[in-house]
């Protein structure tokens, strides 16, 4: 279950994706399959090749992209992978 996200944040994430940028969206998230994870970061881009290349530099496989028909395909980052990538990207506001 996702929560703690504002419409404005979601709209900004979608606009960045539509503009061909690598876009980050972090929100609270609870799932019994991942009891130690309380947040998820969705990293999306309309250009799937660009998204694949971005993910590859962090060891993410293209098969892990959640491909969506609505154009908002993304990687889901959880746990230590999430923390490590956000730190390397210099996006520590998402970690607070």
Furnish the topology, listing elements before pairings.
Elements: E1 2-3, H1 7-18, E2 23-29, E3 39-44, H2 48-56, E4 74-77, H3 79-89
Antiparallel strand pairs: 1-2, 2-3, 3-4
Protein name: YneQ
**What is the rounded distance between the termini?**
20 Å
Number of helices: 3
Q: Mind describing the biggest β-sheet?
A: 4 strands, antiparallel
What letter string, H or E per element, gives the SSE order?
A: EHEEHEH
| Fraction of residues in helix | 25-40%
Radius of gyration: 13 Å
Spatial strand arrangement across the major sheet = 1-2-3-4
CA-based shape: globular
Protein name: YneQ
Word description of this protein:
It is a single chain. This protein is of the alpha+beta class. The chain has one domain. Helices cover 33% and strands 20% of the residues. The protein contains three helices and four strands. Strands 1-2-3-4 form a four-stranded antiparallel sheet.
Describe the structure using short key phrases.
single chain, 96 residues, alpha+beta, four-stranded antiparallel sheet
Summarize the structure.
The protein is α+β, with helices and mostly antiparallel strands and 96 residues long. It is built from 3 helices and 4 strands.
């Amino acid at each position: 279950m996702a929560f703690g996200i504002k419409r404005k944040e979601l709209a900004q994430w979608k606009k960045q994706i539509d503009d061909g940028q690598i876009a980050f969206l972090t929100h609270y998230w609870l799932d019994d399959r991942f009891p130690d994870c309380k947040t998820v970061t969705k990293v999306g881009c309309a250009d799937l090749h660009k998204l694949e290349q971005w993910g590859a530099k962090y060891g993410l496989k293209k098969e892990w992209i959640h491909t969506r028909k609505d154009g908002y395909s993304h990687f889901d980052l959880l746990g230590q992978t999430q923390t490590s990538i956000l730190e390397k990207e210099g996006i520590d506001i998402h970690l607070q």
